[in-house]
Design a protein that fits this description.
2-enoyl-CoA Hydratase, Chain A, domain 1; Rossmann fold; 3 domains; globular; six-stranded mixed β-sheet; about 700 residues; 29 helices; eight-stranded mixed β-sheet
Amino acid sequence: MRSVADHLDANRLELGRAWEAARKGHWRMARDPGGIAWLVLDRPGSGTNTVSAETLEGLDRLLDALEADPPRGCVIRSAKPGGFAAGADINDLAELAGDEAEALLRRGHAVLDRLEALGCPTVAVIHGAALGAGLELALACDSRIAIKGASVGFPEVRLGLHPGLGGTFRLTALIAPDEAMTLMLAGNTAHTAKALSLGIFDEVTEERHLAAAVRAAIDALPGRGLGAVEWVLGTAPGRAVAARRMRSTIAEKVREDHYPAPYRLIDLWENHGGDPAKMQEAEIASFAKLLKTDTAKNLVRAFFLRQQLKRGHDAESRIKHVHVVGAGEMGREIAAWAAIKGCRVTLSDLSLDALGSAVRKAAEICETEHLDPPEKRDALDRMMPDPNGYGAACADLVIEAVPEDAELKRKIYDKLGRTMKKGAILASNTSSLRLAVLADGLADPANFAGLHFFNPASRMQLIEVGAQGATDDVILDRLAAFCREIDRLPVRVADEPGFLVNRALMPYLLEALILVEEGVDREAIDAAMLDFGMPMGPVTLADQIGLDICLDVAKSLTDQLDRPMPEIPRRLRDMVEKGNTGKKAGQGFYDWSSGTPEPKAGADAVLSRDLTDRLILAMCDACVECLRKGVVRNADDIDAAMIFATGFAPFRGGPIRYARSRGLAEVRARLLKLSDKHGPRFRPDEGWADLD
């Protein structure tokens, strides 16, 4: 086994003499010959540092020694090659409750206050990411040195919270308050150059120059004066004007009753921004209160759901070369993403124009992903247009991504069967066809499975890994590992019509289009769902997906399901026949020729309640049916899949969580009423009884 010293030396992290020190809890500490103390965060049993109560207690003990015998200076950095610290330990947040939260927060604040008041210069050295509580630890130091590539951010709003270990008052005191508030309210990450320009980083250097940079920083800490903007925002009237603008901006994105954290953050700064002590007290109280909200509880749960999907068996995919058949909208996205994530990719299509478009799309995705020029070059080099399909012969995984036509797919499989190497995996990106039907006639059905990406594959996080009766479990493990290796979330699904996501989503979309046919304004329908918390209204979503695709999936599910689906609206069929297929055609239910339509939230409340039940409960009922039929392992997988594939309002926790919080008996009763009024498609599935 490699020693810690060998590991750290291999990654060339400058840690003074701390690499020689024994780890005590989460920390290592040693003084170098120049009298500088190096405090190294090195949480055991993890490749990533997080800041927990134990982390802060360990730092508190180290501060005892530093206060008793002050060094010339003190450096805090991480021993983890991946970065500084990823934020607070979410397990700690999940366990906090009641008055205990405030008490624990106060203890944490006391430790960082001690660090800030230490009687020697303190320098945080940041490589990789310093997020949330990790950044708050760095902000308690006198200065911050970044290694090129470092980034900082406060993502707490995505958990229904705001910074809670001093970030609200330390960041607004360190940099321009409006810039600090923007960073916290958006939950975005500031990369090296941006963080330097904001003033969060005092210097950017390379690892080999760090020792000298630390000595220089300790000898001459940077000073900073107030600019005109900071002076104005330091006054109560100035903050009041800025706070009104901030609330107006936030209100365009999220509602206060859905996501209270950004509104509470604005309150904190407006009311106490001129007094750090009062702002600290208010931050603690506000954070503790937010922890008790349903929004925070559900968003923290969504975090854990993501982690569950990320965790898998120890199996590796052993997939290095991916061959994609079909350079249409899905195929080119899949190919580009796999190449960006390090796979060698060949992409085949009969159309040279389609292959050319795929290369251009890959370049666009590289830009969207902020790849630097060498990374972009390498990614594009890994993706090879392959009009003759030669790559299938040496690929570890072949992904078929052609239109939903079973006969077409079988013809492709027949050809692939004569060229694919022994042991290679064949996967279909089908969204609605039965895998068992597609597997019929395959020479090696054990190596055939579903790998259903969502559009656009470069942005959507979830992938459904589908098994048909003959699929080998080892193949499923390898495909799930492949999903994780390309930074995607796999969910196992059984071979049922539409798998999970399309089975649950299609009743929701069709019901919306039925409402349009009944004469309800499309914008009222979309606005009702925006008010519910969905990221996009269902009519807009249908246009985005493509009305032709919606129609094909609806037909397929209607033919295969043993429970009634919403009737396919005549208007949908007519629009597809006319070629008005949505965004890609420039015209669908909305006119897309001048950009994306933006229905406004705030529909009539009574109308919204009725629409909400017809749309959301149709989705919930389909999810319960999928759970009863064993399409997925459990209710958590359903909630995770619907959040990460459809954007189902995360603060509500997913369809099953929403139904439980509303009351299962009430939901079932409401479905029965809807069934009496609108027909058997709303008759509650028998699986509701099993949720009690």
